[in-house]
Amino acid sequence: METRQDRYEGARENKLNQLKELIDKSENIVFLGGAGVSTESGIPDFRSGEGIFNQESGLKYRAVDVVSHSFFLEHPEEFYDFYKRKLCYPGALPNKAHKALARLERQGKLKAIITQNIDNLHQLAGSKNTIELHGSVCKNFCMQCGKHFDLNYVLQSSGVPYCDRCGGVVKPNVTLYEENLEHDKVDAAIKALKKCDLLIIGGTSLTVYPAATFVQFIKHGNIVIINKSSTYLDLQAKLTIHDSIGEVLDFVIPKRRTKKQIEAAKQLKKKEEKARIRSEKRLAKKEAEAKEKT
């Protein structure tokens, strides 16, 4: 007799196969990811029940207030106390999701990763085309002279890190509350989204703006959601998978492209080329007929 577990496993397998097919047919994929991509590397998210914003900050201030521009300026000592304890994870390593996306990029299919994370794990996994919307803990700069510093400099500083050249306060190159995202990063993200033929959204509840609105730039229905909790796009997406993003991506993106995948990609390109030639011939025929009539 079929059990609920059997039916669930069957449904899961069907969805994973659908995602595989979508990836096989696509040649310009964009991945939009949030904090859930890195939780499997031991980095907590912000808004879940056990997220950073629902934990004790260790200060007399709320965590959500500490990560603001005004708090950083007014209470740099407290900011860095919290920042080093709660937002920096130098020992974290890329998980299955990061590695799978790096493989997909090497295959030439994944054209951009748009991430809301600041942990640099996509780059550590080998991804090159990564747009860090909210910056990175690995990039820091002196607010006075502009000199750049790495994460180790910040972590090894006692209290507030100061510039070793001019003595100015060093600030993480991350977007805090009350700060705007860098325009060039938003523009790059939108440009990539407009070109993609498949958008995979993973590890995000789609509640943080402007990333939550990026789907408006997709003019097709090829949108996949992979997230443990529900999002406002679940019913509109072509495919929604409530599961571990690392397990899902590791399964649907094999270590190497199989011969079947390579052959399928070649056949798809041939079909597209034949369709293009037929279209050009029809257009040429219509133009010739129009000339004869005149």
Tell me about this structure.
It is a single chain. By secondary structure, this protein is an alpha/beta fold. The chain has a domain at 1-40 and 95-133 and 182-257: Rossmann fold (3-Layer(aba) Sandwich), CATH 3.40.50. Helix content is 41%, strand content 14%. The protein has helices spanning 4-25, 63-66, 69-74, 76-86, 96-106, 121-125, 151-156, 183-195, 245-252, 259-293, and strands at residues 29-33, 110-115, 130-132, 135-142, 148-149, 170-174, 198-202, 223-226, 239-241. The termini are far apart. Residues 1-7 have low confidence and may be disordered.
Give the overall average pLDDT. 88
The SSE order reads HEHHHHEHEEEHEHEEEHH
Number of helices: 10
The number of distinct β-strands equals 9
Q: Which helices and strands, and how do they pair?
A:
Elements: H1 4-25, E1 29-33, H2 63-66, H3 69-74, H4 76-86, H5 96-106, E2 110-115, H6 121-125, E3 130-132, E4 135-142, E5 148-149, H7 151-156, E6 170-174, H8 183-195, E7 198-202, E8 223-226, E9 239-241, H9 245-252, H10 259-293
Parallel strand pairs: 1-2, 1-7, 2-3, 7-8, 8-9
Antiparallel strand pairs: 4-5, 4-6
Helix pairs in contact: 5-9
